[in-house]
Amino acid sequence: MTRLCDPPLPIEVELGPDGRPARVCGGPLRGALRPAARWLAEADWWSRPIAREYWKAILNGELLVELFHDLREDAWYLERIYD
């Protein structure tokens, strides 16, 4: 089962030396991240353009989450929690 965060929740993310998300340090969940998958989404969605870098990652070694970096705002968001 998954829980969609609607609207997505703002979070603070620290990047590792390789540029991948390494830690959530602000927001409703905090801890170390182990990235599992990455993809990009760019579209003019009903004249509200989006440009996002999505990540699925394991938070604290046990919780699968989906987060994204809004490339237009330079902000991070938590979008989905898998349980």
Structure description:
There is one protein chain. This protein has one domain (2-82). It is 0% helix and 76% strand. With 83 residues, the chain is mainly beta. The mean pLDDT is 93. The protein has strands at 2-15, 21-26, 31-45, 48-59, 63-70, 75-82. The radius of gyration is 12 Å and the shape is globular. A six-stranded antiparallel barrel has the order 1-2-3-4-5-6. It contains no helices and six strands.
Nearest-angstrom radius of gyration?
12 Å
Question: What is the helix fraction of residues, given as a range?
Answer: under 10%
How far apart the termini lie comes to: 6 Å
Number of helices: 0
Derived structural class: mainly beta
Question: Secondary-structure blueprint of this entry?
Answer:
Blueprint: E1 2-15, E2 21-26, E3 31-45, E4 48-59, E5 63-70, E6 75-82
Antiparallel strand pairs: 1-2, 1-6, 2-3, 3-4, 4-5, 5-6
